Request: fold
Amino acid sequence: EAEVAQSPRYKITEKSQAVAFWCDPISGHATLYWYRQILGQGPELLVQFQDESVVDDSQLPKDRFSAERLKGVDSTLKIQPAELGDSAMYLCASSSNQETQYFGPGTRLLVL
Amino acid sequence: KQEVTQIPAALSVPEGENLVLNCSFTDSAIYNLQWFRQDPGKGLTSLLLIQSSQREQTSGRLNASLDKSSGRSTLYIAASQPGDSATYLCAPGDNDMRFGAGTRLTVKP
Reply:
């Protein structure tokens, strides 16, 4: 069964450093989502792509976060510089035409 | 701006009980609603997707209903098992894609 892949699974970094997360969606899924989930809360949408275009990044802290999906397939989410408050689980999901979202295992980030 | 509320926040039941999890949302202009399960430290697993034109969906021991006009959905779990222990999240599908905080379910053997 096809799955959404994410790497790394865990990342520990010091504040002010740069970090990057990678996501490979299910083949053929045009829509890709990046979420941030703080412990005890539901996921918060950071950015949504339709193919290579951003359709919603209203919740993305653009002064330090960036996301790209250059060829409309895999995607990278970057944080520079990382802050203590960025410690969270970063989840990637994909879907086909506003149907079921399939989530990857997530990247757990700890900023020291 | 969509606001999603899930009640109760936590629930502990003995094995075999039937239970209902509630989800309410403020903006009824949704195209679907999805229920997910999340195990500790893991990603989300989709359980059921209800289209806005549907009233309910069933999968095994799970049944989800949707009352779009009143902004409510329920997830019914029949004959609960210890393996059902997880956090259950609902997400109304609209331009905002907001999630509830979830209901943390514990099923005791």
Summary: The beta strands of chain B are 4-7, 10-14, 19-25, 32-38, 44-51, 56-59, 62-67, 72-77, 86-93, 103-108. The CA atoms of residues 7 and 63 of chain B lie 17 Å apart. The longest strand of chain B covers residues 44-51.
